[in-house]
Amino acid sequence: MRRDSIFYKLFQQFPTLLFQLLATPPSNADAYRFDSVAVKEPKFEIDGVFLPPENEGAGIVYFCEVQFQKDEQLYERVFAESSLYFYRNRGRFSDWQAVIIYPSRSIEQNDIHPHRSLLNGEQVHRVYLDELGDIHQLPVWIALMVLTTLEENQAAEAARDLLTRTREEVNEQGSRAIIEMITTIMVYKFEQLSRMEVESMLGITLKETRVYREIKEEGREEATVNLVIRLLTKRFGEISGEIRSSIADLPLPVLEDLSEALLDFTSLADLQAWLDRS
For residue range 219-259, what is the model confidence (pLDDT) as tens digits? Predict the structure, then answer.
């Protein structure tokens, strides 16, 4: 289940959601913008960054990490990236804070002693979704986060309840966004079920929703990537990880063009030249 992308879609739809997890959110939380940023020397990207409005002077930048797998060097990476980005943009920000979202405490890295000052202070906020309370009592947007952590035998009933609450408590525009997110979570969580089975489970029709169209398109794209790599491997032998990654990043129309163009390639050099032009 692609939880990172689900959470970042949530933050794009509703940036103030992050601040609902904090005891002391900034007074101008509604004005924050969610984005990803790149830092050079060394080059790396930070996927989840909440940027304060630029027209209000230097503000606090919030870094967000959604972590659903064990990583014994997570804090080393997060603090290094956050500190370097803050250093490179010191004039824009007055301070930085980090929010780490875990499904439970068991996913947190074991050796946290070197980071005790940060973790025990006010600058780093650790959120454990399974400790936020009963999903039926949480605000709708927070409940969406918790829905991603539930087992299948609990998720279906919780999703139906969340759909009912959404229709009753949220305005039309927000309701559409939440329903899209619920269906996204459930389709990924129940990958073994057909569309009709997921529809029946939730009591809604997915066929015309954006999530169904996106997943259908995503399936076509993944199938085309696999086909192109198989054809190239058959012709030229093992393909490097770098080339595989470049192909996987291509949009579907370009992938389809590549599937035709590769028939004329005589070497991997032809493939690389084609990728450089695309």
Answer: 667 778 888 888 888 788 888 888 888 888 888 788 888 88
**Locate tokens 């989840």: which residue?**
48
The total of other beta-carbon atoms located within 10 Å of residue 238's CB is 8
Q: What is the pLDDT of residues 116-128, one digit of tens each?
A: 999 999 999 999 9
Structure-token pair, residue 130 = 């399974």
Amino acid at the residue 269? A
Q: Is 242 helix (H, G, I), strand (E, B) or coil?
A: helix
pTM to 2 decimal places? 0.68
- pLDDT of 208: 47
Listed in order, the ranges of the chain carrying CATH 3.40.1350 are: 1-131
Within 10 angstroms of residue 77's Cβ, the number of other Cβ atoms is: 13
The answer on pLDDT for 54 being more than 60 is yes
- Of the candidates 43, 42, 22, 41, the residue with the CA atom closest to the CA atom of residue 32: 22
3-state secondary structure 102-157: ECCHHHCCCCCHHHHHHHCCCCEEEEEHHHCCCCCCCCHHHHHHHHCCCCHHHHHH
Are 62 and 70 in contact, with CB atoms under 8 Å apart? no
Per the structure block, which two tokens stand in for 197?
Answer: 């089975």
Q: Which residue has the tokens 């070497």?
A: 267
Radius of gyration (C-alpha) of the chain in whole angstroms: 22
Domain 1-131 has CATH 3.40.1350: yes
Q: At 174, phi and psi to the nearest 5?
A: -65, -35
**Is there a contact between 139 and 45 (Cβ–Cβ < 8 Å)?**
no
Closest CA to 184 of 204, 165, 161: 204
